[in-house]
Amino acid sequence: MDATDLFLAGLQLYFITMNWTVERSYCAAPITEGSDCFLCPETHEFCTAHNPLFLARPEWLRLATCFSAYAFCVGYLVILWAALTDGWAKLRAPILLFIGAKMYALIYYHTMEFTSETPPLGLGAYFGVEGPYLLAGVLVIRKVMAGSLNPLKARRSVVKYSSKRVPKAATQRALEAAIMAPNHFLSEPWRFYTCGPETKAKLCGLNEDKRKAAEAVPEWLIVTLASEHKLTEKLGLEDHAATACAVQNFMLSLASEGIASKWMTGALGAPPEAVLECVGAGRGEKLMGAIWYGYPAKDLAEDAKAPPRKKGLDGVLTACP
Q1: SS3 of 263, please?
Q2: Closest to 23 (Cα-Cα) out of 77, 79, 72
């Protein structure tokens, strides 16, 4: 959860409060100077000075407010849940549907108000109240669309990361994607080791020459191969290939959420046995690599340049008759 998530969560709580106090009261009866519902006196005072049409309560506005009071709060709850759990990617479809409906309602509402015989007065104060709804819409769209990268194009090996923390939910989603990799006979030969501060410190200490670079990496995942077969055997090769597919799935899932990664093997500059010892790997497991990951110092992009392939597609493709 970052600062934007917290800000959006606070706004949703404010919107829900307005739904269940002022808007529900307005739906049932006009708001007057003597209304004693929560925030109703403040609303009456504000509308007297800046929004007389709201107090006039035309039927179209009453119906629109009734709909907002009882229907839109569901959308606010969905966004609140996404902000608190980093569920933007999973809830993308319902959130976008809600934001579309909300933006349509705001445009209709403001058009009717500004073209009425009693348009809003004091635009600064007016949009000071209405502004949070517009700002929230923009921020929510940015949050939702941040996870819409094409991971096949956006994934790159990255070594420079920002200090922004990776949500545990994003790591969990990536691990769940990893275990969906194809594997013959469902051998599930992969083993994953997430690394807490103590383990990361051990890994960073394996090579003093690369300690500084390693300590700048926000998150580590150690991946091993646990196969009953030797790599010289067909099934051993299949298990190795399946684990490699799992690593790719893990990194692609991260990339889809704007999180960068780098698959490290020999570049760690440490014996595989030492890495396995740091994570307490089981007997017979073989190191597939350490996955560095975190939010990149420069945002991932689908048009980011990749190292040119020497052979290219033509050099490796044979069109069989």
Answers
A1: strand
A2: 72
Residue 202 vs residue 108, higher pLDDT: 202
In the beta sheet, which residues pair with residue 262? Answer: 292
Burial of 173 (0-12, 13-18, 19+ CB in 10 A): buried
CB-based burial label for 35 (10 Å; 0-12, 13-18, 19+): middle
Do 289 and 263 form a contact (C-beta atoms < 8 A)?
Answer: yes
d(CA 78, CA 216): 35
- Is the four-CA dihedral 197, 201, 203, 204 of positive or negative sign? positive
Residues 6+ away with beta carbon under 8 Å from 188? 179
Instruction: Please give the model's pTM, rounded to 2 decimal places.
Output: 0.65
Count of CA atoms in the C-beta half-sphere (13 A) of 283: 0
Length of the chain: 321
Q: Contact at 8 Å (CB) between 222 and 293? A: no
For residue 319, count other CB atoms closer than 10 A to its CB.
Answer: 4
pLDDT at 89 over 80: no
- What is the phi/psi pair of residue 219, to 5°? -135, 150
